[in-house]
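Researcher: Before we compare anything, I want clean individual predictions. No alignment, no superposition, just each chain on its own. First chain goes here; please echo the sequence and then give the structure tokens.
Model: Echoing the first chain and its structure:
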Amino acid sequence: MGNNHKQRNNRKAQNSLQDECIRVPKVYDWVTDTLSVTKNLCFTDEQLEAIECAMEDPNRRPLRIICKGPKTPPLFPLNQSDPNLCDDNGFYCDQVGEKRDVTVPISGEFVDAQLVELLFTADIVVEVVDRHGRIVTKLHADVSALESFVLCYPDGTELLCRVSKIICKNHSGSLMLNCPAPSAIKIEVIFCVDVQVEAEVKLEVLAKFCSPRDNDLETVGSVDQCPPIEFPKQCPDIFPGQNDCDCSANGEATGYTDNDATEKGEAGILVDICPNCNISDSVFDFTFNDTDRSDGLKDVNFHATSFDADSLECKECDGGLKLIVSGEGRTDKGHRLDFNLALVNSTHGDQFQVQLIKERTGHVAFDTGVVNVREGSINVEDCVEFSDIKMKSGV
């Protein structure tokens, strides 16, 4: 028994597990972001004449304005980050200038990172078509967005950027009904971007799926011998980082509030807390239909806008699990409120409780009490970490 590995002569079944060394592109950082840029496009005199001529024909009215962006490759395979694949597709991503060393605050400590600027460009086509879909005229435009990224981008690694989707919106209205035609239109182009920092390394690994982080880091200030074989130094404080969550929950459920509730009625929740064991993409929507009209109608519609990772708590409860989390959100009337949410998935049935709290006073504005789920279900599961896995030693 023990951790010492000795060569044994025992025969092994075919395809048994054994130590392997693999060569792979290791991800040092992975960031997704959404960039938006607006642009005004002007029609020429000839184009305006063609548009007004078409609008004077009742059989061709109304005219529609269609904004088209280039088609992007699918999300998979991941090797489509190669910029050469985008050159002939009407869009590209390019690094502008050299990377710069910066310092960023993370979890109360200062961490070294690199700052780069990336330029995303797309060829946009705006078409004016008649009611039969025939093109009256069209405009071509190059639209670019320049964005800074703070990355774990050490020497020896390679930066790969890709555009996963390009969305073009017309802000001047999609229909032309009457003369005179507008001389210009305003469009918005949205770039969905994916940035990775990679290096080819040799690893012996256990692995799990990981999720990209948000682009939310801000900077603070701005030998004559054979080199040793060293892989680029990674940045564990930046990426992949630690999971925010010890457990996750999802589901849609409704039930009636109990006697301890602020109001009597039917409460409903839609939750997806800690998807992929990451709190940043969590969802929580709450509705309440007031069934006691004697004191006035007090329906509630609430949407969570942020979640506090430090408030997340997971515990065993009646043979199942209980998840507790707090955060902030808004009602459909624009009121900002804090919230406390408790979800129970046990052998005795599913339950939930929602508290809405006024930010300034800390007063509980609404409390469902403990709600027994009448329709729907809630699922609460543990998030398994590498630290939860116990390796078996050789016998």
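Researcher: Okay. Second chain, same rules.
Model: Second chain and its structure:
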Amino acid sequence: MDILSFPLICPDWNADEEMLLLEGIEMYGMGNWAEVAEHVGTKTKEVCIEHYRNAYLNSPCFPLPDMTHVVGKNRKELLAMAKGHLEDKKGELPVKEESPFSPSRVKIEDSYKNGPLGRLPSASNTGTTDIKNASNMVQVKDQPDSLKLDDHLSGRSFGSKKPKSADDEGPSLLEFSGYNTKRQEFDPEYDNDAEQLLADMEFKETDTQEERELKLRVLHIYSKRLDERKRRKDFILERNLLHPSPFEEELSREEKDLCRRYDVFMRFHSKEEHEELLKTVVSEHRILKRIRELKEARAAGCRSSGEADRYLEQKRKREAEDSGHRKESSQAGPSSQESLNVPVSSDSLNTYSNTTSVGHANSSSLTDLDFVPLSGADLLSESEKQLCREIRLPAPHYLRMMEFMTIQMMSGNINQKSDAYSFFQIEPTKIDRVYDMLLKKGMVQQ
């Protein structure tokens, strides 16, 4: 077995290490210096980068290293040179003197504990083991040029995990969309089955001219599908659709749903034009909603904006309370459910009705109920409270009937008592009493 533990290109690198360096680059590629250094075994990643740059890339005999200083010398002379170089290092390091091959910024560590003449085995790609001299030292050079070269040659890192960015914390649109930021690809891609069209296709020498033209046509179609895939991906990345829009973060759920309906027009506008369109649509929606609320408040008897705001605020509170009551009743069980929405069922209000068991449970649960203390009773006058007691009508139902009948009267859909019977599923006598109350309060003209 040949012993290659002698310096060849520079005093700090033996011939076997040079072979392992070149083998590692051939096996793992130029940028994977961590694997290359592990393959060498006695050198760090930075030392491997520095040596390859100085001895090979900057060599006057590029791409070969400069061998002029070792030409004509035999193994013994090279070993003597290595021994002399090692003795020079040992003599110079204690007094902190710099040598041509050992600058002060280089830290040399002896990785062998068996004395200066020990041996270290190293494996090659063929499975053989070479014996190395104790002059193999592990050098760690803290030079920014080496790190810059490493970053330039390789965008990947091995043996350590990169810290997660702020975008990786918690679920986001990136995770839901399946987009891989490092690969810049979606999983699955748009038109993900495009490759299946030509997966089994191959050009043969025996193909006829028609078959060849047909296959070329298939390739042309596939290219068009790839272009469409790239166009869509570029559109998503350029418009930043993988991240929530700052404009839509302050919108309500209803307004966000409205904006989603206009996404189909995004391809016809620039980013600024589409954002301006959404702002206009949301502004229009808010104005129309405000107009509807003011009309409703005016129909309820409000004559100023302050009264309208108070009425709308009380209405929202009633709706929130009604929603809470419905949720509680649904959790309590079907026997205790009661509907607070118009149209109102007569079975739920008639105390003495004999219907199904569920209807009977509903009616029996309302037998001893005082209708006035329910939510909304504070908005009624004494005469209205007395009316609700007499006809056994809950205050929220009464307010909703008043509101609904007032709007229908203003619209001309109710001109007499009988016209209102079709809108409610309760006794006509109760509807007549509510209609008379509306006339008595002067909210509508007969």
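Researcher: What stands out in the second chain?
Model: The beta strands are 7-10, 13-14, 106-109, 120-123, 129-132, 138-141, 179-180, 185-186. Additionally, Residues 173-243 form one domain.
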